[in-house]
Each structure stands twice: as structure tokens, then as C-alpha cells.
Write a structure and sequence with these properties.
The protein has 271 residues and is α+β, with helices and mostly antiparallel strands. It is built from ten helices and seven strands. Strands 1, 2, 3, 4, 5, 6 and 7 form a seven-stranded antiparallel β-sheet that branches. It is globular, with a radius of gyration of 20 Å.
Length: 271
Amino acid sequence: MPYERRYLIELRIFEPLVVHPDLEDYPVSDNRTMILRLAGEDADARLISLPPDPVADSYRGTPIMMTGADAGDGIDRVCPLQDDIRSWHALEALSESSSKAELDAMVPKSARRRAAAHRVEWLQGEPDTRVFTRTSAWDVSPVWWLAIDPEEDQVIADETEHGHRVRIRVPILTAASRVEWAVSVLKEKSRLSAVVESAEQFSDWLDSFDMNSIVELDLGGMSEIIYPETGADLVSDWVDALDADDRESAIAAFNAYTRQWEALGLYARGS
């Protein structure tokens, strides 16, 4: 069993299997547990090796599947794992924010050379460059809550060997419409330029997927900490108050969310 990364929260896009001809022969099954276990075991093995290699291998041929029965509409959907692609993006961001000495300590040169070679090889094949999974640590990005409403969307709560787990699902058209409206409000009435830019990028990301996709927020090991007090209602109240030109209520909702965010930050540092 791989080391459990309880603090990870995943936002996944499950696209219809029919729009992925490269996966048309992939067997339809509820394979999430198996795929994530194998990926976790591989990550553990790479990180305890000498030298360690934090850059993942390719899993694009083994997607996480959401069967039509599970989705409830008969449409089989997939979310490509893309651990290698996401590792490349993370490495690029790390390279821009770290000194050479720090980078050498975190990601050995041999791992960086191998990752660069694999990325060049991948780019030569005219690949689909979309990233299907976004990852957060300890808390949910407030921008994600623009797309998701736990009171209206499908909430799946399970008891697993790792404890309580909550996933929230919404059709991508609903999610995209919510974000598009929120972006229009924020652009007009918010002074938080970084949030506005992030929301615009998030909206563009959602619009890049098939209209029959499903957005799923997987709270993972943070389910018992975050759910049901997610903070989604505070983000919604903030945007609604901005739209109504109710500055006092907007400030109150934003400050309340900030306090909740800071409390989770203390939890993260304490863990």
C-alpha cells in the first residue's frame, strides 16, 4: 500500500470516452482505486530511490474511469492520469521560483535531464496539451468554488479503508456557466486583480473540454476536515454581494473566508 497523501485535493475533468479514440480499446471498469494505488506506489519507489526521482512516468494509457453506471447517464468517461505532464509543469514552475542550489537538492540533474528528453519526445507527437487534473494541498482554491455548489451538485460520500471520502460532481456546462457569470462580476466590481486573472484562466480551462464532461472535486483525505463546512457559501456570498453593490456584505464574506483559509493553514503547518 502506498504512502497516503491525505492533504491532496483533486479537481478532475472526466471527458466522454468516445472523444478519446486512443483509449477506445481500454476496458470499461471502476478502476480508480487500482490506478491511484499503482501511481502512488510508483511515486513512493521513485522518491526513496538513490538518487530520488520526483518526476513521474507516463500513465496516459491508463486513465481513471467513470463508468456510465456510476455517472448515471450511461456515458463512459475518462480522466487521463497525466502524472508525467503535470510533473513537467511543476518542475518548470519550481525552476522559475528556486535557486539553482535549491533546485539541485529537490530534483537531481539526472531526473531533470530525463524529464526534458521525455517532454521533447512527447511534444513531437502533436499531443493534446490540456491538463485534466488540478491539485491543491490542504484546502480548495476559492476559484474552484465558483464552479461548484455542494448544496446543488451531486455529493458522493463513502467510507473507505482510509476514512471518510467526499466527492462533488457537476456537469461541465453548469460549472462553466457559473464561472463565466462570476468572472463578469469580478471583472466589473472586484479590485483583486490576481483573483480576477485566476478566475479568467479557470474559465478558459473549463471551456477547453467536451460539453458532455463532468467536473469532479475529490476532497480526498481532507474530507473530514473540509466537508460540510467547505467555505463555498462564503465565496458565493462574496460574489453575490459584489453583484448587488453591497460592499459591506462582500467584505464580511471575504474576511470570513480568509479566516477559514488561515485556520486550515495552521492545520497544515501543525500536521
